[in-house]
């Protein structure tokens, strides 16, 4: 009888385990790539072109320019006046650096992916006026705009 009870328990666990997989609770059949996450984020945020970003900055718009590239990238050059918070530590440092959740924030990275993810994260954290600069640092450089 004990052997039957053990077999029944093992079978029950297997059934629950398999049921979890088939319902998607334990493992999704769809795997996502970094590009999938960037596309999803881009659909939820506002983006501006490099020219629009330049015009906002040159026009004196009150704006926090947030560079989410890594510190070594930032040291090699950045948009004048930019604040650097690497994408990898954004959630941990942004509230201290940018406490005003109503501040206008222009986010950029190298080409746009990390910027989109960062803008989406900021939106989720309650920041209301966040824009991602499409094309990022590379497009800024190729346009010949000022750098530090």
Explain the overall architecture.
The chain has 148 residues and is α/β, with parallel strands linked by helices. 51% of the residues lie in helices and 13% in strands. It folds into two domains: 1-31; 34-142, Oxidized Rhodanese, domain 1. The chain has helices at 2-23, 34-44, 50-58, 71-76, 90-97, 113-124, 136-142; strands spanning 46-48, 64-67, 83-84, 104-108, 129-133. A five-stranded parallel β-sheet has the order 1-5-4-2-3. The longest helix has 22 residues, at 2-23. The radius of gyration is 23 Å and the shape is globular. The N and C termini lie far apart (79 Å). The relative contact order is 0.17. Mean pLDDT is 86; it is low at 4-27.
Which terms summarize this structure?
2 domains, alpha/beta, Oxidized Rhodanese, domain 1, 7 helices, five-stranded parallel sheet, 148 residues, 5 strands
What low-confidence regions span 5 or more consecutive residues with pLDDT below 50? 4-27
CATH topology of the largest domain: Oxidized Rhodanese, domain 1
How many H/I helices? 7
Task: Please list the strands of the largest sheet in the order they lie side by side.
Answer: 1-5-4-2-3
Q: Could you say which overall geometry the principal axes of the C-alpha atoms support?
A: globular
CATH homolog superfamily of the largest domain: Rhodanese-like domain
Q: CATH class of the largest domain, anyone?
A: Alpha Beta
- The total number of structural domains is 2
Taken in chain order, the helices and strands follow as HHEHEHEHEHEH
How much of the sequence lies in strands comes to 5-15%
Radius of gyration, CA atoms, in whole angstroms:
23 Å
- Terminus-to-terminus distance: 79 Å
């Amino acid at each position: 009888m004990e052997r039957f009870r053990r077999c029944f328990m093992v079978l029950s666990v297997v059934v629950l385990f398999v049921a979890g997989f088939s319902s998607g609770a334990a493992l999704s059949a769809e795997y996502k790539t970094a590009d999938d996450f960037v596309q999803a984020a881009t659909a939820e945020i506002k983006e501006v072109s490099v020219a629009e970003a330049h015009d906002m900055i040159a026009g004196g718009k009150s704006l926090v320019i947030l560079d989410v590239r890594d510190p070594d990238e930032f040291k090699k050059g950045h948009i004048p006046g930019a604040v650097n918070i690497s994408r990898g530590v954004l959630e941990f440092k942004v509230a201290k650096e940018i406490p005003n959740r109503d501040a206008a924030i222009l986010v950029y990275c190298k080409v746009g992916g990390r910027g989109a993810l960062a803008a989406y994260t900021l939106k989720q954290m309650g920041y209301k006026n966040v824009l991602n600069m499409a094309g990022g640092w590379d497009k800024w450089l190729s346009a010949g705009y000022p750098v530090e």
